[in-house]
Amino acid sequence: MNASNLQTPIEYLKGIGPQKAEVLKKEFDVFVCQDLLNIFPNRYVDKSTYRKISELKDASAEVQIVGKITGIRYVTQKKGKRLVADFIDETGQIELVWFRAYKWILEKLKTNVAYVVFGKINYYNGTFSIAHPDIELLEKHKNKGRIPLQPVYPSSDKLTRKGVTNTLLMKSIHQLLTVSKSVFVENLPQSICEDLKLMNRAEAMRNVHFPQSLDHLGKAQFRFKFEEFFFIQLRLIRQKLVHQKKIKGYTFSKVGTYFNDFYKNGLTFELTDAQKRVLREIRKDVGSNAQMNRLLQGDVGSGKTIVGFMSMLMAIDNGFQACLMAPTGILAQQHFEGISELCEKLDLKVAILTGATKTKRRREIHADLLSGDLHLLIGTHALIEDKVKFKNLGLAIIDEQHRFGVKQRSKLWRKNDLPPHVLVMTATPIPRTLAMSLYGDLDISVIDELPPGRKTVKTVHRYDSNRLRVFQFIRDEIEKGRQIYIVYPLIEESSNFDYKDLMDGYESISRDFPMPKYQTSIVHGKMKPEDKAYEMQRFVEGKTHIMVATTVIEVGVNVPNASVMIIESAERFGLSQLHQLRGRVGRGAEQSYCILMTGKKLGEDARTRMQTMTQTSDGFKLSEVDLKLRGPGDLMGTQQSGVLDLKIADLVKDNQILKTARSYAQHIVKNDPGFEHPEHRALISTYNQLSKGKTIWNYIS
Ligand code: ADP
Ligand code: MG
Description:
Largest sheet: 7 strands, parallel
Bound molecules: adenosine-5'-diphosphate, magnesium ion
Structural class: alpha/beta
Shape: globular
Mean pLDDT: 85
CATH topology of the largest domain: Rossmann fold
CATH class of the largest domain: Alpha Beta
Number of domains: 5
CATH architecture of the largest domain: 3-Layer(aba) Sandwich
C-alpha cells in the first residue's frame, strides 16, 4: 500500500462496508483509511497477565482469567432477564453476565472447555462478576499473536450497535499499519527530532496503536502530543504575525482633551499601577497602524470598566466612535448608567441599545450613529445586527467575552472600511496555558491588582443543618443596614426541577423574613426582562434587603451595600462560577461574607471546590484548580470547546510539552516564517492541511 491508498474511502476497507462507514463518518469524522489511524486509543489494557479468581479484590479492575464454564442459566429480574454463566478456575468461582443478545451467546457458549475471559470486575452480594466479558476459547487465544498492551478506542453506544467494536477497530488499524509501513514520512525538522530524541513518525504510529512495551508507548505518545501542540502553536503564532503585518487599523495618533480632562478631573480615585500599565499597552496598540486585538483579564472588581472607558476616550479624542457590548440586558444597563455618570462632565453623547429598545428609539439611535452625533453606544448582541451602522467605529469593547463566540467578534470588524480596534474584557481568569492555545491571535493584558482598601470576602462552608444559624447571621447583617444575595443553581434554563428549588427557597425565605420588616426580591431567567429589571432596581436602590436569584446575577452586577452572598447547593457550581458569584460582594467598605451551603454528603471534587473557595480568593489559582477538576471544555463553555479538540495531548497534564512546543514554534516562525530552510520543508504539507481548517489529525501522512 502506498500513501494514496491511505486515501481510499473507508467503506472499501475489509470488514467495514457502507453501514459501518456511515457511523464512522458521523461519530469520528473518519472518511478515508488515513483517518482511522488517527483515532488514538483512550487507554490500553494489560493482557500480558492472567489472574486467579482467589486473587480478585477490587471491583472495577480489569482482569484476564483462564477457566471453564460449569453451568448456564437465565435469571429473571425486575425488567426482563439476564443470562448468567458460572465460571471457575482452580481457585474459585465468578459469574459471567449478559443483559442482552443472550440467544446468540447461549448458542456459542460451551461448558467444560477452557476459555480466556477478560473484563471489568463487579462485586455484588458477595459475588464477583463480569458483565459482557470478552470471551475466547483458550485454544484460539494461544494461537493468536499476543498483544501485551491492547488498545481501547473511544466508543459509543451507536458505534457498538452498528458493529463498530473495539475488536473491529483493532483489526482494521492493524491491517492498515501492516500494509502502510513506509508511508509515514517525518513531518518535524530533523533538529527538533534530535533535540528531543523523538521517536520517528512511523514507529510512533505503530506503537501508539500496538505498543511493544510501556516504554515504547510513552515515547510514541510524547511524540504525538508534541506534534499536536507544535503544529497548533505554529499556526497560531504565524497567523498572529501575518495578522500584525496585514490587518491595518486606525491610528489614534494623539492623546486628546477628553482623555486628559477625565484623567485630571474626572477620576475619583487613583488608578492602580496595573490599570496604568494596561492603559499604556492599549495606547501603544491603538497608536500603531495595526488593528488591536487585545484580551483584558482582570479578577472581579479589579476595575476593568474604567480602563475600557478611558480607552473609549482615546477613540473619541481621535474623532472616532466607540461601543461596548455586554452579554445581558441587565449588564448593559448597568454599564450604561455607570458610563453616563462618568460622561456627565465630558459633554459626550451615550446611548443604550438592547433587544428591549423600542422601535422609535432604535431608529433615532441608528440615525445618530450614522451622522456621528452619538459618541458611545452600549448594548447587547443588538449592537451587531446588520442595521446598526456607525459613521466611524474606532473601538469595540466586549465585556465578559466567554459568552461571545469568535464569530461574533469578527462580525464587529465588518462595520467600517477598516476594522475597529477590539478590546475583550473578561473576569474569568483563563490560565495561561489555556489562553495560549485558545487566544493565540489575541494579545493579553492582565490587571493583577485590586484597588486599595478592598477587604477579602470571608468565605465559609456551612451544611444545610446549620441553616438556622445562617439565618440569624443574615438578620444581624440586615440590622446593620446591609443587603443579602441568596443564589440558587440553575444549571439548565429549562429545568423545572431547578425552578422548584428556587421557588421553595423563596417561599421559605419569605416565611423566615416576613414583610413588612423584611423586603425580598426575586430574579430569575424565566421572568420578563422588564420585571427582572424592576426587581433588580429595587435591590440596587436598597428598597429590598434580600435578593433571591439564579445565576443571572453572576456577572457584573454592582451593589456595594450588599455584603453577604449565600450560595445554595454550592456543590453544583463550578469554581469559576462560585468565584464570579462571590465577586458580587466585597464591593463596598464593609467586611463581606460568602457562605457556601451544601448537604453533608459531598463528592471528592465538590469537597475540593469548597475547600479551595474558603482558602483562596485568587481567581487565577481558582481557575487552575478548576481546569484540573473539570477539564478545559467545561471551563470555556461549549462555544469554544471546539478549539480545544485535542486528540491526544491534554492541556493540563501536558502543560510542559505545550510550553516546549510553543518555544520551538516561536523560534521557527521568528527565523524562517516562510519555511524556506530545507530542514523546514517537512513542515509544509502538515501545516497547509491544518490551515485549510482541518484538524491536525486529518492531514496526509
Ligand atoms: P470589574 O473589573 O469587575 O469590571 P469594575 O470595573 O466594575 O470591576 O470596578 C469595580 C469597582 O471598583 C467600581 O466601583 C470602580 O469604580 C472601582 N474602581 C475601579 N478602579 C479603582 C481604583 N483604582 N481605585 C478605587 N476604586 C476603583
Ligand atoms: Mg465588569
